Every structure is written in C-alpha cells, then in structure tokens.
Amino acid sequence: MASEELASKLQRRLQWEEGDSGLQPAPEAAPDPEPQPQPPAWAPTARADAELSAQLNRRLDINEGAARPRRCKVFHPYSEFPEFSRRLIKDLESMFKLYDAGRDGFIDLMELKLMMEKLGAPQTHLGLKSMIKEVDEDFDGKLSFREFLLIFHKAAAGELQEDSGLMALAKLSEIDVALEGVKGAKDFFEAKVQALSCASKFEAELKAEQDERKQEEEKRKVRQAAFRELKAAFSA
Which of 13, 14, 195, 235 is the most buried (most CB within 10 A)? Predict the structure, then answer.
C-alpha cells in the first residue's frame, strides 16, 4: 500500500513539472509557532509589602485597642505640655538642638548615645533602642522634639522606672529649675506637678515676655536718641 502511494505522488510530481497538469504542489503545512514566553505575573515590591504589612498590623492594633493615636503634623509644645513653663520648654528645646547633630529635627540612636555619654550615663545599644521605643509614638526609630518632651512629662508623672535610661536622662539634664520661676520650686519634678494647678500660668508668662520686649524696645529708643544728640553736638 505504501509503494502505491509513493508511486502516485511521483506521478503527480512528473505531471506538474511537464506542464501536463494544472496541479500545484500542495503547500507544506506551516510549522506550529513556538510558544512565546509569558511575562511573569506581577509581584508587589518589598516596599509595598512592608507598607501593607504595617497597615495590617496597625489595623490589628486598632481592633485590639493597642494602637497609639497618631498626632497631627503641627506641634504646639505650649498647649500640649501646659505643665511646663515657657522658659523650661525653651531650655529643653536648646538642649534638643544641641544634640541634634544632623540638624534634621530628630535625635537618632547615635545622637542619643552621645547625649547619654555627655550626661555621664552611657547606655548599651539595646538600652538606647529601649529608650527610644518607650516614647517613639510614630515608630520611626528616633526622637522628635515632642517625643523628647514626652520623656520629661513621663518622668514628672511617675511613669518611668527609677533605674531606666530615660529617667537618668531626665534627672541629669542640665536644666536649672530654680531659675524657672514656677512657684519657687527647687525640685525638678515638684516644679512640674505644682505647675499643673496654675491655670493662668501661660498667660502670665506670655505677658511677662511681652513686657520684657517692650522694655528692651524703650531702652533701644533711648540709646538711639542719646546717640543722635551726641552726633548733633559734634556736628555743631
């Protein structure tokens, strides 16, 4: 059977070559196209995974009542920490800026390490991380000025362990409370507790600052007038 089919194919081939037949060779079947590689399925990046994980973890904390409230970006130290005098907040701000070597508005782990060494209470790496974690409200691993003030707030409220690094920071900070004028209190923490009951303290301090600036302006005007008189006397 196979030989008959082969003979038939040869006969048709000869007829086509001699022009005796209008037969055309049957076109060969086109080979099946090779399968194209499919693009890999999209996979989320590591950053997207981290953000999603953080959102899910926070949602779980909210459901369990363990999430700390998020603060607005605008921070008003005088209204958020009314137990502190304006002078004390300014002194603490100066201290914060002194150790903010990067001038980025934060004290990171290495800057906190330097601070504790300067205060005479060096801490281990784990101890420094524990200090930051205790007041790190936004979980960024560093201290903002608000979180720095929160250290002293917790110390005054008795919320810190006596042998903790944060308590050492609060006690060793070179802030002369005797000069703060908070009811003449001599003790650092006693000053803050007493200030809590002073409802009009903020207004009184603000008025005192305004009066002080007014007096400085009057003195400046007097000096300018005296200089003009002296200049006129030499010009005459």
Answer: 195
CA distance 222 to 225: 5
What pLDDT band is residue 124 in, cutting at 50, 70 and 90? very high
Helix (H, G, I), strand (E, B) or coil at 19: coil
Contact 77, 71 (CB under 8 A): no
Both tokens assigned to 14: 């000869």
Place of tokens 């996979």: 43
User: How far is the C-alpha of 150 from the C-alpha of 118, rounded, in Å?
Assistant: 21
Cα distance between residue 159 and residue 142, in whole Å: 20
- Please provide residue 143's backbone torsions phi and psi, each rounded to the nearest 5 degrees: -105, 125
Q: What is the pLDDT of residues 48-60, one digit of tens each?
A: 667 667 777 766 7
Question: What single letter denotes the amino acid at residue 134?
Answer: E
- Contact between 143 and 132 (Cβ < 8 Å): yes
